Amino acid sequence: MTDISHDRLLIIDFGSQVTQLIARRLRELNVYCEIHPYNSVDEAFISGFAPRAVILSGGPDSVTRDGSPRAPQKLFEMGIPLLGICYGQQVMMHQLGGTVDSGHGTAEFGRAFVTPQNSLNILEGWFNDGDEQVWMSHGDHVSKIADGFEVYGTSPNAPYAITADVARNFYAVQFHPEVHHTPNGSKLYENFVKLAGFTGDWTMGAYREQAIAAIREQVGDEQVICGLSGGVDSSVAAVLLHEAIGDQLTCVFVDHGLLRMGEAEEVVTMFRDHYNMKLIHANEQELFLGELDGQSDPETKRKIIGKLFIDVFDKYARPIGAKFLAQGTLYPDVIESVSFSGGPSVTIKSHHNVGGLPEKMDMALVEPLRELFKDEVRDLGRELGLPDSFVGRHPFPGPGLAIRCPGEITRPKLEILRKADAVYIDQIRKHGLYDDIWQAFVAILPVRTVGVMGDGRTYDYACALRAVTSVDGMTADYFPFSHEFLGETATRIINEVEGINRVTYDITSKPPGTIEWE
């Protein structure tokens, strides 16, 4: 869907765990960029993509190993600005005639300090007080720079921590400017895109116009159905599609019996009445809960729900002759679904939006948000005029409460979970904390515990409260509630929700945990 009228920056991914952060830093500068695995970038791709500049990411491999990843040689002949990060620096030096060493004294991990050697355009305003703190993560280092390069910064174990061939606009750093632990790293990216001639014209207003034009071109006069969950992603996608194609769009809101309290009524009122969209309220609770009966494995539950969603969309698409299914896939979903090495990747959990459609549906996908991060989706929602009550909602997973109910799902457990979750969110709102939290919810645990209420013994469920802070959901930390808040909330849940007699708070970060329990 990318519009080549906007300047584009290409990020070639060599497998770094933080490559996505490079894209985030650039998007914050209103620069459009895309991440592509190194093994999918050849000369033909580069010609078609026509980047104004290229960044080579870090990676876990060693350029001293035969068969390790390389950049297309064409990159160094195009006359466009290049920036190599960590492994990207080593690739650049190796391919241009420098030397990279591996062994004793070449590694450097964690916080380090770079000492400036000479002034350099991409470092303008960066070295403010002498040495600058950076984050290193490398086993090899450059021991001889390629012809034309000069050294502009050193660190204890990286004699060429910052190098550049200014005449060719080639720049290379051994550290990671994209991470939080390089405090002024964003300034380096800002200077790089400025010297590359980017004007910062990639705004949500521009994306809105571009997306609408692309939707109309892809869809033509055909009918489209959109899976509407009421979450931020699908809500923004639905409003964008409606603006683009009007009555060609039919939204299908699947009520699978795994929604939060009052959610169905809220979504239907919002989109049918306020936006006057064609909306099918598909009450399929018996279908979903029947298929989930007796299932306790989390991946099995996800796959059952994913398959049933497709069956339901197919059921409602056929009568209206829909040729396209629209969904709110985001850029992190796309990136995480691609293994940079092209090899097998570990499945942490299935993502219901990535992976294509069964052939029986005979439909194509429309994914107007697949180039956006979550915060950008919220910005687009505001651009489209969605109310803050929807734009600012915490993420809610497609499988719904099924993955907040570890173990077997039953209707009584779901009802208990709904009530507990409603009390918890009400508490968060009352204390003015909702907008400070990325995501908050209750999970009902597959255990029962002994308690006492009044003079009687209880044997009821335990629940876990979960609340995390995050920028984009890729990493997360628990929210530091006060003990007073937690005590007050636990008391309310136990007093107001029949079936729960014990409340815990989950303080696991991501990683090692995931945000959701399943």
UniProtKB/TrEMBL annotation:
UniProt xrefs under Gene3D superfamilies: 3.30.300.10, 3.40.50.880, HUPs
Chemical reaction(s) catalysed: XMP + L-glutamine + ATP + H2O = GMP + L-glutamate + AMP + diphosphate + 2 H(+)
Enzyme Commission number(s) from the entry: 6.3.5.2
Binding residues for ATP: S229, G230, G231, V232, D233, S234, S235
Enzyme class: ligase
Record domain GMPS ATP-PPase: where: 202-393
Catalytic machinery residues: C86 (nucleophile), H176, E178
Source species, domain of life: Bacteria
Keyword field: ATP-binding, Glutamine amidotransferase, GMP biosynthesis, Ligase, Nucleotide-binding, Purine biosynthesis
Pathway(s): Purine metabolism; GMP biosynthesis; GMP from XMP (L-Gln route): step 1/1
Alphabetical list of Pfam families matching this protein: GATase, GMP_synt_C, NAD_synthase
HAMAP family xref list: GMP_synthase
Binding partners and assembly: Homodimer.
Function: Catalyzes the synthesis of GMP from XMP.
Protein name (database record): GMP synthase [glutamine-hydrolyzing]
Recorded name of the encoding gene: guaA
